Amino acid sequence: MSELDKHGSNLPVAEPIPDPGLPEHQYRVTDVDESQARRTERQISLMFGIATLLAIGFCVAYVTVDFETTFLGWSAQNFALGMTLGGALLLIGVGIIQWAKKIMQDHEMIEMRHPAKSSDDDRVAVLADLNAGIKESQIGRRPLIRNSLLGAVGALALPGVFLLRDLGPLPHSQAHTVWKKGMRVVNDISGLPLRPSDIEVGQLINGEPAVFFPAEGEEEAEIHGHELLAAKAKAAVVVVRMRPDDITPDAEKANWGIDGILCYSKICTHVGCPISLWEQQTHHLLCPCHQSTFDLADNGKVIFGPAHRPLPQLPLGLDAQGYIIAMSDFPDIVAPSYPELARDQKRLDDENNRDGA
Asked: Is 311 buried (19+), middle (13-18) or exposed (0-12) by CB count in 10 A?
C-alpha cells in the first residue's frame, strides 16, 4: 500500500498489523520422518488400489447380479452397485485428502487484500503458484501415489461405459419392428381388431399390432415383460381416415390405404416423441414437444418444425374376416434421426428389395 506526499511521490505505508501473532509452525511427522512419509504413501496408494478394484467390481456386479435377487430385503443389484461405486468414490476422496494433509508441503500463507482486477504480474504469479503447487505435491517423487491415483480414476470410467452401453441397442440394429404381413391392427387400449366400418372420416385411432395382446383362448401375449415395452415403443401407430379425394399418395403408395384409411408410425422422426395431435380439417399431425408437423394426406411429409423425414407409413390390407392388417413391416426406419440413418435406410431398402424379388 502507498500514498502520495506533497511532491506527488509514492511513500510506503506500514501494514496496520505488522505481526498477526501466528504461532510457531509445527512440523508434521511426515515432514521430519521419511519412513512415516513412505508409510503414509503406501496407505494412500492402498486406498486408490482398493478403489480400482471396487470400480471393476461395479462392472462385475452389473453383469452378474440378477436384478430380481434381494439382500436383507433390498435389491441385491442396487446394494452391490451402490457399495462398489460409492466405496470407490469415497476411497479416492479420502486418499486425496490424506495426500494433501500429510504429504504435500505444509506452510502458512498470507495474502494481502488487493484490487479485484488482476494485473499482469498477478497472472504471472498465479502460474508460478500453480507450478509450485505441482512441485510441492511431490507427484514426481511419489510415483506410487501418482500411478495408483491414475489407475483409480481411470477405472471409474468403466462403470460409465457399462451404464451408457445399457441405455439400449445402437440405432443401426433397430431397423425393424414386430409388424409383418397379415398381422392385424388393433386398438391400443382394448386390443380389439379394427374393421374399416369402425373408423369414421376425420377420426384418429391409436393402434398397435395384435401380437401385443393375448390371442383368443390364451392368457398371455406372445411378447411380454420388458421386451413388450421396447417393442410397443417402436410399433405404435396412428390410424386415420380421410376422404379418398383429399389424399395425394406417391405412386408406390397408391394401394397402401383402404378407402381413405391410412396408417402411420406414431414416433416422431425428430427425436422420437409419441404424437397423436390430429387436425381433421388440414390432415396434419402435430408433435406437441417440438412442433414438428406432418401432412398425413401427403405421404406424411414434414411441413413445419425440426423433423427432416416424413412419418413412416405402414401398408394396409384386409384379411378374410374383413379386419385391417399390415401388408409388411415399415419400409422406412422407425426412429428419431441419427447420423448413420442414411446408411441404415439404404441397408433396409436393399433387404426389402431382396424380399420383394
From this structure: buried
Closest CA to 263 of 284, 243, 240: 240
Q: How far apart are CA 91 and CA 51, in angstroms?
A: 6
% of residues, the chain, pLDDT over 70: 88
- The residue ranking higher by pLDDT, 2 or 196, is 196
Which residues on adjacent β-strands are paired with residue 208?
A: 186
Q: What is the pLDDT of residue 2?
A: 46
Which residues are 295's β-sheet partners?
A: 284, 301
Report the alpha-carbon distance of residue 238 to residue 313 in Å, rounded. Answer: 10
Contacts 24+ apart (CB under 8 A), 185-188: 185/209, 185/210, 185/237, 185/239, 185/263, 185/316, 185/323, 185/324, 185/325, 185/326, 186/210, 186/212, 186/213, 188/236
Q: Which residue has the higher pLDDT, 110 or 105?
A: 105
Look over the chain and give the mean of its residue pLDDT values, rounded to a whole number: 86
Residue whose C-alpha cell reads 447420423 in the numeric block? 339
Give dist(CA 169, CA 331) in Å, integer. Answer: 20
State the Cα–Cα distance between residues 17 and 34, nearest whole angstrom: 37
Q: How far is CA 228 from CA 166, 175, 206, 233, in A?
A: 17, 17, 17, 9
Cell numbers 448413420 correspond to what residue?
340
pLDDT at 1 over 50: no
User: Is 11 a residue whose pLDDT tops 70?
Assistant: no
The whole-number average pLDDT for the span 324-334 is 94
CB of 266 within 8 A of CB of 238? yes
Helices (H), 33-75: 34-64
Read off the pLDDT of residues 234-277 as tens digits, 9 standing for 90 and up. Answer: 999 999 999 999 999 999 999 999 999 999 999 999 999 999 89
| b/e burial code for range 131-153 (CB count within 10 A of at least 16 → b) | eeeeeebbbeebeebbebbebbe
Q: What is the pTM of this model?
A: 0.56
Q: What are φ and ψ of residue 271, in 5° steps? A: -130, 15
